[in-house]
Write a structure and sequence with these properties.
By secondary structure, this protein is α+β, with helices and mostly antiparallel strands. The protein contains 3 helices and 8 strands, in the order ββββββαβαβα. The chain has helices at about 80-85, 95-105, 130-135, and strands at about 5-10, 15-20, 35, 40-50, 50-65, 65-70, 90-95, 110-115. The strands form 3 sheets. A 4-stranded mixed beta sheet has the order 4-5-6-7, with helices on one face. A two-stranded antiparallel sheet has the order 1-2. Strands 3-8 form a two-stranded antiparallel ribbon. The longest helix has 10 residues, at about 95-105. The radius of gyration is 17 Å and the shape is globular.
Amino acid sequence: DIDNQRLTVYKDGEVVVSTDVVTGNLNGFQTITGLYYAYNKETDQWMRGEDYLVFSDYWIGIEGAYGLHDASWRTNFGGDIYLYGGSHGCVNTPEEAMKTIYDNVTDGIPIISYHHDRPVQEAADNISETDSEDNL
């Protein structure tokens, strides 16, 4: 969920992990959207670009050079960080969450990356006090 900077992994209909992330910088490095399939899981991965060389413990590819990976160089995730300090298109994930994701994801599982209007409201947040009393 790019707009809410949130990654949620489900397994057998249950949430395995839900974590804040940092996606692609809006200055030409946006994270891709659509339906993809996990592939090329690796540990101890060096990632290199024109202006970076970084190491991650856990990597899951989603399309070409785009992937999900831990980002030990970040101390904060979520919020609006991606607007001014986003990634080069990958989904930067806290290391502890990424280990759980890595341990629960197999090659070929679907990954959906998307935008929608934010913020996401829980159903209970949309019910006013008056509506709640009328529906009890």
